[in-house]
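Worked example 3. Consider a protein that binds magnesium ion.
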Amino acid sequence: MRIFSGVKPTGHPTLGNLLGAMQRWARIDQFRSDDPGDALFCVVDLHALTVPHEPAALRERTREVATLLLATGLDPERCTVFCQSHVAAHTRLTWIMESVVGDGELRRMVQYKEKSARQESVSTALLTYPALMAADILAYGAEEVPVGDDQRQHVELARDLAVRFNTRYGEVFPVPRAVRPPAGARVMNLQVPTDKMGKSDDTAVQGIIYLLDPPDSARRKVMRAVTDGGREVVYDPEAKPGVANLLDILSACGDGTEPAELATRYASYGALKSDVADAVVAVLEPLQARYREFADDPATIDKILRAGADRASALADPYVSAAYDAIGLLPPR
Ligand code: ATP
Ligand code: MG
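Given these inputs, the predicted complex is written out as structure tokens:
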């Protein structure tokens, strides 16, 4: 079985990205084969063009995200780590996806509504983003897409488009499905626990733990997290979103003990926060040490991305050719 997932270089990656997605990818051994082509992890840089950006910063973030992926423990010998814009198949298949998706479907996407509401002028790319994301997944015939909760709707759409394409033009694509982590699928902002922690957010940044935050600063952010009324530690995401978020983080950083079970171990918010801070720092420190090793060696990162893109292209081209052929485009002879 093949899995694909990606992260956008739109900002400094956060604890949400790690717990909801990247940490999971590094633990793929449990649910996949030994073939490095069966697990593809991508820095989806083309997706970063959907919102206003600065070219030099984008190049820097792309390197940072690629380096962090390796620092989480992804082994480039056992999986394929690459940069989306290095593989032409993604954009070649996007046009095909745009021809099978309805504009109403794109306008209904929650992320489009949220992100477009925050901007004065909205690019067409922000609207068609899910068509590119469907192409990202379908270009490899990926069956599983490990993502956080906020990306589930886009994976559902990719699923619908695979089925629609296959029904109209003949079986080309396996039908993918989203897989979510048991805890940490939706890490909330520590200052505004009703909002998702997002790397491109520019408000409530004190509630965002960046993966490269100095450990002291990460600890401070946890200790200053907004908690809820009352004093009892219970897991109730509706009534106590702040405490529930801390319990979710603790569960995802620890051995997987359920958040509700963890709640029974605490008599005060202070003790809970202190354990969450320790758990977060224990995750960040080794990650940052590995990041520094790789960051000192950019040539190795370039080589890994290059080899990854070559392997990814070889895997994607047959799917794209099959789709072009099935839809009626005359093959070059
Ligand atoms: P942006 O604000 O630019 O959308 P983001 O933080 O949402 O950035 P993405 O690149 O969109 O990050 O998503 C990368 C992966 O991280 C996806 O699988 C997404 O579901 C997951 N993810 C993002 N934010 C969170 C979060 N707060 N909790 C859990 N998973 C998350
Ligand atoms: Mg996002």
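Take a moment to read the result before moving on. The first strand starts at residue 3 and ends at 7. The pocket of adenosine-5'-triphosphate (ligand 1) is lined by residues 7-8, 10-11, 14, 16-17, 19-21, 147-148, 150-151, 184-187, 196-200 (CB under 6 Å).
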